[in-house]
Amino acid sequence: MVHGRRARLFEEAIAAGADVYLSGEVSEQTMHIAAESGVAYIGAGHHATERYGVQAVGAHLSEQFDIEHLFIDIDNPV
């Protein structure tokens, strides 16, 4: 199969028996691996998959250190 970090991680998930693989990235390689393996691939994009974690860390740090945290959500159509 295809080499590259993302492709290797996807292949490892397939070998472990995954039915679905969710990632913030998508590439031509991973789409081919998904089609060949029959394992569903969801390339949801960084914006959609990472914004809630960033907000949670900011809120935690704000509470712990009495600092202001402001998250500015800028839509990214990718």
Features:
2 domains; 78 residues; mainly alpha; two-stranded parallel sheet; 53% helix; single chain
Strand content: 5-15%
What is the CA–CA distance across the termini? 27 Å
Q: Given the C-alpha coordinates, what overall shape results?
A: elongated
The ordered H/E elements are HEHEH
Mean pLDDT metric: 87
Question: Strand sequence of the main sheet, in spatial order?
Answer: 1-2
How does the major sheet shape up? 2 strands, parallel
User: Helical amount among residues, as a percent range?
Assistant: 40-55%
Number of domains: 2
Please mark out the parts with pLDDT under 50 across 5 or more consecutive residues, or reply none: none
Radius of gyration: 17 Å
Number of strands: 2
Helical element count? 3
Structural class by helix and strand composition: mainly alpha
Characterize the structure shown.
With 78 residues, this protein is mainly alpha-helical. The model has no long low-confidence stretch (mean pLDDT 87). The protein has a two-stranded parallel sheet with strand order 1-2. The chain is built from 3 helices and 2 strands.
What's the arrangement of secondary structure elements?
Layout: H1 5-15, E1 20-23, H2 28-37, E2 40-43, H3 46-65
Parallel strand pairs: 1-2
Helix pairs in contact: 1-2
